[in-house]
Write a structure and sequence with these properties.
Elements (H helix, E strand, L loop, with lengths): L4 E3 L13 H12 L4 E4 L1 H7 L9 E3 L3 H7 L3 E4 L5 E6 L2 E7 L9 H21 L2 H5 L12 H6 L8 E4 L4 E4 L3 H7 L1 E2 L5 H7 L2 H13 L2 E2 L1 H10 L8 H13 L3 H10 L3 H4 L1 H5 L3 H14 L11 H9 L8 H7 L18 H17 L6 H8 L4 H12 L2 H12 L5 H6 L37
Length: 453
């Protein structure tokens, strides 16, 4: 086993003051129970590049169930690889057990694994053991390893640095600190092999370089040009998730431009590649300017707004009522296409509502009642965000926000509020020897006549 290069605190600028306090608590508790635990990945990289990390992910030698025993606020997630999510209020810290690189599976191994998995399923079903069925995982991706093996299975050297909070030192197995100093993206191992293993790594190399203002190692650039067509074999769901991450990054204009230059965009979304023009750069630039005003992505910057910022410059989005008059919602073909990327119908329909509200938000002659009705539309907040990003009318946006702050609750909200169930008064039970209540008592006996009889 190779020993890592240990960089002491005096030789790097990463300070514990910039690390989330809850992340430090988790690190210290795991270390107190003799588990090797570090801050890993993008958190270390961003802090060394003087950037604010989006997440603080941890790596440890503890297995998921061992982590769960130490933290009551821990949930185990994942089928292919079990991860521990430790929740602190609305914040979630991801803790992953060190893994090692597994060689590609042969056809014989895959057939044996699938047969064993099917036998386990049938056995669990026959026994009626629901808990056993939910625990079925693919053990191949749960091959735990050491910190060194975990470092060598990562994609790029700048993402394979480990920070030890107890000694305040950085562990470097792959010369990642050198590449941090050079501001270079370099692959761990042969980039040709790594990109064939996971073609999404090519996209991530371009995204990292654009977002962090880094250069790409020539060997990585050559491998991207050679294997860029392999990106079509990636999961479409992963690719569309990466697209939304790009749109939320605050650097989408440069990233889309660089993906086009690298030749990846024409395989991922040829429509977007053909639409590279001033209209697209203006739309993405406006989106980036808005996103950079916030430390974190605001909740109103949802997928519909992001999708619209990407496709509106080259696609025609029909208004909702016009579409509804033609054919039912479930049978409508989507008029927006992005190559391999699956566009969720709900996101496109939401975008339709957002765009439909724009001319109404700009109408200064609406009655107060009509304005109240618009403010209670479900797409109102996102429509206002769209207007702020793309319409460049700050006074109008401020006016609507001021009105929305003091707006009363919607009448619909009152109607949909669950009614409190009225409880009926129950008569006291009478025992076997109890007398029937007389006419002077509160109840009516069998011979007591009620009013009106």
């Amino acid at each position: 086993m190779a020993e890592p290069t240990t960089i002491p605190r005096s030789e790097h600028k990463l300070s514990r003051r910039h690390i989330d306090n809850d992340a430090l608590k988790v690190i210290y508790r795991l270390q107190q129970h003799n588990f090797e635990t570090y801050l890993v990945g993008g958190g270390v990289r961003d802090l060394l590049l003087d950037r604010r990390p989006k997440d603080f992910d941890l790596g440890t030698s503890a297995h998921p169930q061992q982590i769960k025993r130490l933290f009551r606020n821990c949930w185990i997630i994942g089928r292919r690889f079990r991860l521990a999510h430790i929740k602190f209020g609305r914040k979630t810290l991801e803790v992953a057990t060190f893994r090692k690189q597994v060689p590609p599976e042969t056809d014989t191994e895959r057939a044996a694994r699938e047969a064993e998995r099917e036998r386990a399923k049938q056995k669990a079903t026959a026994a009626g053991d629901r808990q056993t069925r939910t625990r079925l995982v693919i053990p191949r991706d749960n091959t735990f390893g050491t910190a060194e093996e975990d470092a060598f299975r990562r994609d790029f050297t700048i993402n394979a640095l480990f920070y030890d909070a107890s000694t305040r030192s950085i562990l470097d197995y792959v010369d990642g600190m050198r590449d941090i100093g050079r501001r270079t993206i370099r692959s761990i191992g042969d980039p040709n092999e790594r990109f064939i293993e996971d073609p999404v790594r090519m996209l991530r190399a371009v995204v990292l370089a654009a977002r962090l203002d880094l250069s790409i190692d020539p060997a990585v650039s050559t491998a991207i040009r050679r294997h860029r067509g392999e990106i079509v074999h990636s999961s479409p769901a992963r690719l569309v998730e990466e697209l939304y991450k790009i749109a939320r990054s605050g650097a989408s204009e440069r990233i889309i431009h660089d993906l086009g230059d690298a030749g990846l965009l024409k395989f991922i979304a040829p429509e977007l590649d053909r639409a590279r023009s001033d209209a697209l750069w203006k739309s993405l630039g406006a989106l980036d300017s808005y996103r950079r005003r916030f430390d974190d992505s605001p909740p109103t910057l949802g997928n519909a707004v992001l999708l619209g910022s990407i496709v509106a410059p080259f696609a025609t989005i029909e208004r909702p009522r016009r579409r509804a008059a033609q054919e039912p919602l479930a049978k409508r073909p989507l008029e927006v296409s992005l190559g391999l990327l699956p566009i969720a119908r709900r996101d496109l329909e939401r975008l339709r509502q957002i765009l439909d509200l724009q001319h109404r938000l700009a109408d200064g002659h609406m009655s107060p009642r009509a304005r109240q009705a618009i403010m209670h539309r479900s797409a109102f907040a996102e429509a206002l965000t769209w207007m702020e990003i793309h319409r460049q009318t700050p006074e109008l946006v401020a006016q609507w926000r001021g009105e929305a702050t003091g707006a009363p609750s919607s009448p619909d909200d009152e109607q949909t509020r669950p009614r409190r169930r009225r409880q009926r008064r129950r008569r006291p039970r009478r025992g076997p020897g109890a007398e029937e209540p007389g006419p002077g008592s509160g109840g009516r006996g069998p011979g007591t006549e009620g009013p009106g009889t």
